Amino acid sequence: xxxxxxxxxxxxxxxxxxxxxxxxxPAFLRAMVTGHNQASTYLPPGHxxxxxxxxxxxxxxxxxxxxxxxxxFWNSDEASRIYQQAQYALAPTLLDVENTFSYPYVIFxxxxxxxxxxxxxxxxxxxxxxVNGTITLTHRARTKP
Length: 145
Fold this sequence. Notes:
alpha/beta; 5 strands; 2 domains
């Protein structure tokens, strides 16, 4: 190959790269100014419940209470979706919806802050940790002799 051919190829390649950058550079600048180029944050299913995992490591089964359904838990799409996310995040600890208050640890997942306070008092449960004001991990208080 001659030296002139290599120079011509290099010039054509440079023109191609510069023209391509000239086309995409304004869009790149616009994205930088508006912040649309930032990567979206992916949160896995049940990320709010994952905070409770360290408390439930030695616990094989915990109770699960929610106020997001009227009569039948499994017919409520929202309640069962959130329950499944919690079960996914807290595995291998099983979450029991049917016999909620028969376990030493109970998770309260509510629409608003303080929804299960009366139930906590009635079943002698003390809060351990609250996440986002709506998810509370409780444990059974020791009775004094």
